[in-house]
Design brief:
Largest sheet: 8 strands, mixed
Strand content: 15-25%
Order of helices and strands: HEEEHEHEHEHHHHHEHEHH
Number of domains: 1
Helix content: 40-55%
Distance between the termini: 43 Å
Low-confidence stretches: 1-5
CATH class: Alpha Beta
Number of helices: 12
CATH superfamily: Alpha/Beta hydrolase fold, catalytic domain
Number of strands: 8
CATH topology: Rossmann fold
């Protein structure tokens, strides 16, 4: 069944290229990082960062909606994901930050400030990039972002949630990921088990320690205007994360809880998420 996800990935890759996206590899401190970039008809540079265990191709529906209003869209495969190399020694928070920062240093001119959007782990990576390169970021859009502090119990629950062994585990995961998983996701269950069982995913989750999470003090220095979108049916990350970001992010941060979607609103409400990302250009 992993073949099904592999076929979906290849088809999505081909569609992106047909749509005009350029596929390229960038040398970074975390190995070669793959990116898609496409020129559009509008204004602004937009960067999209995906979540753990997925790839940049999950943003194909957003790209279709954004390209007429954006001047340029860059979609990264995080280190060890998609067509990117796995870092030597495995993926941890330092390798993730190095891969994202080094790749974007090449792909995005610092004079052309980008709107950086990320879901889940990609949201945490977006925050980290904005903290490390504040002058490079025009605005942030965080979609159910990871990175909020987790105690050992909560972290154990996250690891257990991603520890899939059977198709029933995958069905449970999809029900937690999405508000209402489509019936055809049943054919993806076996592939999801194999995908989330990859050493790079297991290794990253096992590597997490308290110092990998953001503190309120650090987030208080976040400079770019920020929008946080959170699915009301999100059952992947605890709501304590949303409460933490409400307290810790700078005054003026915009929060929106979305009805009828789970942890990946870009899959269930792509038009809404695309609109919020595009709107962030006006606030930067």
């Amino acid at each position: 069944m992993i073949l099904v996800l592999s076929v979906v990935e290849r088809v999505s890759h081909s569609l992106l290229l047909t749509f005009g996206a350029r596929s390229r590899l960038v040398a970074t401190g975390a190995g070669k990082v793959h990116a898609y970039e496409i020129l559009g008809a509008g204004e602004g540079t937009f960067v999209l960062l995906h979540g753990i265990g997925t790839s940049a191709t999950t943003y194909a529906p957003l790209l279709r909606l954004m390209v007429s209003r954006a001047r340029r869209v860059v979609m990264l495969d995080l280190p060890g994901h998609g067509r990117s190399e796995e870092p030597i020694g495995g993926l941890d928070s330092k390798a993730l930050a190095a891969g994202v920062s080094d790749a974007l240093d090449v792909l995005v001119d610092p004079r052309d400030k980008a709107i950086v959007a990320g879901n889940s782990l990609g949201g945490a990576a977006a925050i980290g990039y904005a903290l490390d390169r504040p002058s490079h970021v025009r605005a942030l859009v965080l979609v159910s972002p990871a990175g909020a502090p987790l105690d050992e119990h909560a972290l154990g629950e996250i690891r257990a949630r991603f520890n899939l062994r059977t198709r029933a585990d995958a069905r449970r995961f999809f029900s937690e990921l999405l508000h209402e998983p489509p019936f055809y996701f049943r054919v993806l269950e076996g592939g999801l088990v194999a995908q989330l069982s990859r050493p790079v995913v297991r290794g990253f989750l096992a590597s997490l320690v308290a110092s990998d999470f953001f503190t309120a003090e650090r987030l208080a220095t976040l400079a770019p205007p920020t929008t946080v979108l959170w699915g009301k049916s999100d059952r992947i990350l605890p709501r304590s994360g949303l409460h933490f970001y409400r307290r810790a992010l700078p005054a003026g941060t915009r929060f929106e809880e979305i009805e009828g979607v789970g942890h990946s609103p870009h899959l269930e409400r792509p038009s809404l998420v695309a609109a919020r990302i595009l709107d962030a250009y006006r606030f930067g």
